[in-house]
Amino acid sequence: MNFPFYIARRYLFSKKSTHAINIISGISIVGVAVATMALVVTLSVFNGFHDLVASFFTQMDPQLKITPVKGKTAAADDPLLVRIRQLPEVDVATECLEDQALAVYGDRQMMVRIKGVGDNFDQLTHINEILEGDGSFTLHAADMDYGIPGLGVAYQLGLGYSYINPLKIYVPRREGQVNLADPTEGFVEDELYSPGVVFCMQQGKYDKHYILTSLEFTRRLFHLDGRLSSLELRLKAGSDFESVKSHIQQIAGSRFRVLDRYEQQDDTFRIMKVEKLIAYIFLTFILVIACFNIIGSLSMLIIDKRDDVVTLRNLGASNRQVTRIFLFEGRMISVIGAVAGILVGLLLCWLQQQYGIVRLGSSEGNFVVDAYPVSVHPWDVVLVFLTVIATGFLAVWYPVRYFARRLLR
Fold it and tell me: Do 252 and 245 meet the contact criterion of CB atoms below 8 Å apart?
């Protein structure tokens, strides 16, 4: 058995001549455990919100979205896009075109984003799962084009699930000059009818701004025949997603971006990652403060064991071995605190997942979820453990060597 480790273990669990040393050692372990527990729980809560937000976005976002690097639109018959559509791994491909427009219904109006999609959009995404109303996903019938507004748009315009009168859409003309005598001539006007449904993603970015309609209507409205703003894809089941994405990016070259679901919402997920990083840094700083208890405990232990050190040196222990005894003591406190904190943190996460102990509000239905979402990621647990161990080891290294040198002079 390692001699310094054996002595350190005896010192840690044996009674000291001064009872306060035992108390301070216990406080050191508890302090490290509490900081570790806070890291595990906090990072898991951020993971829970991350996964929750991702689940909402994927209702409408495609697996892969191809957009032009330069400009807002590209030719729908571009050879590169045609080649991508024909890949054997592609199951569904939908052309999309979207831009800003003014929506007017009765005496209400608001700026919206009109997104024209193909008839197979319901095969590309899970749009049917977020529709509310008595109708179904329908984009056009005969010579009528339907518009499916987001729940927030429907509320702002007073549409309801099914609006009786047509919804008027205005966009500026792309050619010609504005007639100041009649400014309305400077706008293209068209109408959308209700299919009897609205979509609700519970995300303001979509619900408060988007109206889904047919691709033909959008091209006619914006005078962009044969153009698209994105080509959206769903891959066949069993396809190697990363490999296919890499292959499509090679085909697209520098002219098109290939975005997965997370990259399509890069701004949102980047903010969440930054928040998680800041929380990790702050809690690590608290952990460093907790490690000062270890320094105090070891300082008192070194003073308490002066006579033992003399005895050990007379028995042949080297100065390095004596120093390692107290280093092992501090490291054992860190390890015990880390393991205890992780176990308690995992227990709290499990209890939150099962019973929703910490709730978001007193009234059900006010939030998307009633309790704080929690998702434990194994790599976060590993990161927390390594952080605690590294912080504890570094915290005790210099003080132990300093006090040991003074004791062994």
Answer: no
pLDDT digit of tens for each residue in the chain (409 aa)?
566 666 666 666 666 555 566 677 778 888 899 999 999 999 999 999 888 877 776 678 899 999 999 989 999 999 999 999 999 999 999 999 999 999 999 899 999 999 999 999 999 988 888 899 888 899 988 888 999 999 999 999 999 888 889 999 999 887 656 555 555 567 888 999 999 999 998 788 889 999 999 999 999 999 999 999 999 999 999 899 999 999 999 999 899 999 998 888 888 888 888 999 999 999 999 888 888 777 777 777 776 666 666 676 666 776 677 777 777 777 888 889 999 999 999 999 999 999 888 887 655 555 667 788 999 999 999 999 999 999 888 888 777 776 666 665 5
Give the Cα separation of 74 and 68 in Å (integer). 6
Instruction: Give the strand pairing for 140-141 and 167-172.
Output: unpaired
pTM for the full predicted model:
0.73
